[in-house]
Amino acid sequence: MNVQEEHSYPMQATQMVKSAEEKAASKAKAEAKKVGKTGEPKKRGRPKGSKNKDKQEVVLNPELIRIQKALQSLLETIGTTIILKYVVLDGHFGNYPSAFMVRQTNLHLISKLRPNAALYPAFEGEHNGRGPKPKYGSKIDVRKMDAECLKKTASEDNLRTDIYQGKFYNKEFAFALNVVIILKTNLDTHAQAHVILFSTDLEQTYEKIIKFYSLRFQIEFNFRDAKQYWGLEDFMNVKEIAVTNAANLSFFMVNFSYALWHWCINQKVGAIRLMGVKSYATL
Fold first, then answer.
1. pLDDT at residue 204 in the model
2. How far apart are CA 242 and CA 15, in angstroms?
3. Among 160, 191, 163, which residue's Cα sits nearest to residue 179?
């Protein structure tokens, strides 16, 4: 993603095929959730016999392993030609294993937390000396944030948007997160809705976190062009290598056609300027 141009460029397409074990695990997980909704209510408190988990020891699932391998392959391919710093993933990857996977490649993750994610500031009270010093402060209410965290407020058509930013902890993560909360309030009905974005880069500004996450949608235009113009939906290959080659060729043509279009535009603009023509109608 070129953030200056606000345009995405496909660089690598890799097949992600679930194994039989993964499909069985996904089915079992879905069945467990279904039983939980219709069966007996879950007991409160910690299950008997459970132990504390070391958050520094993370076992990546097959999906994250595939993504990490693809990411490492991309980094090896581009070398120092293009300097990457951030990986943007959707809310499905707004969890600690995904953040751990990205940080292993020396990059930072930008993603979205669940709306009901529990966030805590660092503990700043006085320690009474008994036991270890608390790590977390009181749980925050994302719809009643402190004014000191407010970064921007804007109103349009009876809809007010408040943007908050702060360094908070989530107990599923082993480190603090740079959290951005976008709170929208209907000034007529007082109904509210919010989105929680985060970055593992604690120094990143809220403007960049919001912008980089919103630019994810540019990838959809790559798929649209590859399907409409370059045969991503039409090739008849069935073997792994042939499918990979066909998909990568479609995305290559997306990049090539975009570069060629820009080259033609620049050439025509240059010619018109040399001739002293003020109108750009011929473009």
1. 96
2. 11
3. 163
What digits encode the pLDDT tens for the residues 130-142? 777 788 889 999 9
Length of the chain as a residue count: 283
Distance spanning both ends of the chain, measured CA to CA: 27
Measured CA to CA in angstroms, residue 223 lies from 8, 13, 111 at distances of 11, 11, 21
Name 2's Cβ contacts closer than 8 Å, sequence gap at least 6: 8, 9
Residue 39 has pLDDT above 80, yes or no: no
**Which residue has 């995405």 as its token pair?**
8
Residues 235-247, mean pLDDT to the nearest whole number: 90
Residues 6+ apart with CB under 8 A from 236: none
Residue 182, Cα to own-chain centre: how many angstroms? 15
Hey, what long-range contacts does 88-94 have (CB within 8 A, 24 or more apart)? 88/1, 88/212, 88/213, 88/215, 88/216, 90/216, 94/198
Residue 93, C-beta contacts closer than 8 angstroms, at least 6 positions apart? 109, 111
How far apart CA 188 and CA 167 sit, in angstroms, is 32
40-53 pLDDT, tens digit per residue, is: 656 666 677 666 66
Q: What mean pLDDT value characterizes the chain?
A: 86
Tens of pLDDT, residues 64-117:
999 999 999 999 999 889 889 999 999 999 999 999 999 999 999 999 999 999
The DSSP annotation for 220-253 comes to HHHHHHHHHHS-TTT----SHHHHHHHHHHHHHH
List the chain domain ranges: 230-278
Residue with tokens 């994810």: 216
Region of 6 please: left (phi>0), alpha (psi -120 to 50) or beta: left
